[in-house]
Each structure stands twice: as C-alpha cells, then as structure tokens.
Amino acid sequence: MRFLKTLGYVLALPLILVAIWWASTLGETNFFVPTPALLAEAFAETWFGERIVSDVLPSIGRLVVGVVSAIIIGIVAGLLIGSIKWLRDLTEPVLEFFRAIPPPVLVPVLMLLMGITDGMKVAVIISGCVWPVLLNTIEGVRAIDGVLSDSAHTYGIHGWARIKYLVLPSAGPQIMAGIRQCLSIGLILMVISEMFASSSGLGFTIVQFQRSFAIPQMWSGIVVLGLIGVALSFIFQWTERRVLRWYHGLREVENAV
Amino acid sequence: MTQGAVTTNSAAPIPRGRKQPARKLPVKQLLGLAGIVGFLLLWELIPRVGLVEPRFLPPASEVIAALITDFGLAAFWVAVGETMLAWAIGLVMAIVLAVVLGFIIGSSMFLRKFTNSTVEFLRPIPSVALIPLAVLLFGVKIESTLMLVVYASFWQVFIQVLYGVADVDNVAMQTAKSYGLGTMARVRHVVFPTALPYLMTGIRLAASVALILAITAELVIGSPGLGREIALAQAGGAISGMYALVLATGLIGVVINLVMRFIERKTLSWHSSIRSEVIV
C-alpha cells in the first residue's frame, strides 16, 4: 500500500502532463510540437541504431573523461591551494576571475588553440567544470574545524593520513556540492562544443535535425539529453549518499535533537 | 520563535558588516595583486618565447590594448547592453516565477510530493538542449536568449526556495498559529525570513548561471550581444579582439558576483550565519 502510494506520487503528474500534451496535439497538426506517439516513434527510430554508437557513446565518453579529469584536478589543486595560505592569497583573485568567465566563451578560444579535435572538446569540458570543484575544495579545506586540526597535529597525524582521515572527510560535503554543479556544467559544455565545431556527437546531431526541420527527431534529441541529465543526477545522488553517509547520518541526529 | 522575533528587525538593517574590511591584512591584497601580475607576465611570455604561436594566443599586452580600444567603441557598449538586458530580464522573470511557485509548492506537503518526480526530471535537462527549439520558435532574437536564461536560472532559485520553505522551524510556526496569525501573515513573518537566506543563495547562483546562458545563447544562436561579437571576432580572425571580449565577459562576471555578494550581505545583515547556508 505504501509502495502504491509512493508510485502514485511519482507517476501522477507526469501522466497528467503527457495526457494534456496528447489531448492538445490530438486534433491540430502543429508543426513545432509532435504528438507523443510521433515523438516516441522518432525516438526509437533515431536513437536505437547506428547513432548510439556513432554519436551518443562518443559524446558520453568525452563527457566522462572531461568531468573525471576536472574532478581530480580540482580536488588535488584545491587541497594544495586550500592548505597553503600564501598560495591561496596569491591565486585567489586570478581564480575568481577565471571562474567568472562564462565557460562556453572558451569554446572558440580552445578551438583556435587546439583545433577541432576530441582533445579540444575534453579541454572545454575540463576548463568549465574544474572551477566549482576547485573553489569548493579550497573553501572546504579552509573550513576544517580548528580543534580537530589541532588534535590531529598533536597526535602526529601528518601527510597522507591527515588528508585521508581529516581533510577529505571534513571538506567532503563541500567537494560534493562542487561536483554537483560540475556535472551540469559538463553536460552543457559537451553539447555546446559539439554544436559549435563537430561533425558528430549529440549536439551536432540535434542542430542538424533542427536545420533540416526534422522536428520530431530534434525533440527526441532533446529527450536524450534530458535522459542523460537525469541519469547523471541519479548517479550523483547515489554516490553522494555512499560517500557522505556519515555526514547525512550526523545531520539527521542533529536535526532530531 | 527567535526567527519570528528577528523578522521585525529585518526592515531596519543593522550596519554591522562594515567592520570586516578593516580587519584584513594588506599582505593578502598584495599577494593577490602579485598573483594577477604574475599571471599576466606568464601570459605575456608564453607567446613571446614561442611556446604557443602568437597568432593563436596573442600576448597579454596586445589583448589588454584591444580591450581598452573596445572601451572607447559604441558598438562594444551596445553589445554589453544587449547582453545585460537579456541577463536582467531573464533573471527577474526566473526569480519571480520561482519564488511564487516555490512558496506555493513548498508550503504544501502534498504538492511537494506530487511535483517531485517531474521537477527531478526537468531540472537536469541542460538548458542548451533547448537551443534548437528556441531558434525554431523565436529565431535569432533576444527572446531565444531569454528562454534559455529563464529555464536555467529558474531551477537554481526554485530548489533553494523549496529547501528554505521546508526549513521553517516548527515551534515558530506553531507559535505564530497560536497567536492567531493568518496565512498571509505567517508567510510574511515566519516562512519568508526563514527562506530568505536560501533565496539569496539561489539568486546569487542564478545570476551567474543567467550570465553564462545569456552569452552562450548569443554565441551559439547568434542573437545580439557579447557572445555574438566573440563568434564574429573568431570567424573574422580578429584574435586579440576575441580575447579582449572574453576578458570583458570575465570582468562582467566578476562585477555580477561582487554586486550579488553585496546585496546578499545587505539583505541578510540580521542573519547570523550567512555563509553556512552555501555549504549544504
């Protein structure tokens, strides 16, 4: 019964929305908005075939490589800059400036510097994704509890052990907040780098459909991007729950009191 | 209870935030300045030494000169104006929409559960996916930009408002109820002050997202603004001009961040933990 109720909550609104969409497109033949049936057909036709190998998978591959490298670079550099005070003071204004540059603007720049290659697309993703992770890691490292830090010092915990047992856990929640932002920026940049300069990939294909007025196919491309976004967000939530289990537990206890 | 009491003060901000800048050591600013100078020197040297071809990465001095020339051009300011107009209109629309919907949906448990799955599905859809649709619907105009800006920044604010409304203290709410405050009064004096820090964080995030999307739309779609100028400069081979425009977008981003931080500090001067909300 509980399960049914939850299922009802999850499905009710989407079903209503689809029903409205279906009903409103039933009579008329609006060129821009396909009927649900047409969209489903176009979706299956377009994406369950060669395209998944030639366009979808390479795009996702570049996204994963870019995002993972950005996370690693961001955390490593963040730990470094966060724990050395003079380095932080030295780099802060420059980093703030780089973060303020809208990442898509770097697409033409990197196109010039690296040419239109897979490397350039990965570089675009890294160049945009690294900032939220980096800045959040710096903030997180800076906000380590002073008492904990002193205790660790007194017990002679240094180097890797200090990072593993003190710095990473206490900066963890903020690092994860950075990674959450980084994921959506990464997806945006993946699409833009392909819309701008590419002959394959999801972004390219969708723009191609739009230019040739293949409207249902274009919509199906938007749906694919949506599904990737949703999948990413679910993977993230699952990982976050595992990584920060202790943290959520702690908060629950604190809130209960 | 405390939050209800604090509300009455919120209208008259307490000028307490002013003390902070005086405490900072000048060493910090000097190091920051050194960082900027060092970065510019590095940038100047890399193309001069020949690590990267100057054709693709002009030295810093050349780019800054181009930027200063830009500052004297009317066309540059027109482009900036167009970008900022799309940014401002889109941001305001997104905030209004998100606040209204956020307060309505957030205050009802049923509506929250009812809409959750749809929100969680729509939110991660990258706004750039809507670019082809925007082009079809509106063509190469400011409306296309607005559509992307509103969609992207709406979620930032909306989710924050939902969290904020959910954070309302039970005791404060019960107290307000037993003192006989009506629904509107409760929203004004209990829910709103609780949600305000969340809302401000959302607005700050949305402000930078809106800038990103405004410039992206101009870059990819070609609607008028700085983004289009960058695409044109690149296509026309005006490389230092392109870098100058990229610098300009960064400067606008910095200014927006500073202004938003300032507004946040002013509106929340009564709130004890401005920073702690950002972490969660």
UniProtKB/TrEMBL annotation, chain A:
Keywords: Cell membrane, Membrane, Transmembrane, Transmembrane helix, Transport. Residues 56-236 form the ABC transmembrane type-1 domain. Coiled coil: none annotated. The keyword Transmembrane applies. The chain crosses the membrane at residues 7-25, 60-86, 106-134, 183-206, 218-236. One of its GO terms (biological process) is transmembrane transport. InterPro entries: MetI-like (IPR000515), MetI-like_sf (IPR035906). Belongs to the binding-protein-dependent transport system permease family. This is ABC-type nitrate/sulfonate/bicarbonate transport system, permease component. It comes from Crystallibacter crystallopoietes.
TrEMBL record, chain B:
Residues 80-264 form the ABC transmembrane type-1 domain. Keywords: Cell membrane, Membrane, Transmembrane, Transmembrane helix, Transport. It holds the Pfam family BPD_transp_1. It is found in: Cell membrane. InterPro entries: MetI-like, MetI-like_sf. The keyword Cell membrane applies. This is ABC-type nitrate/sulfonate/bicarbonate transport system, permease component.
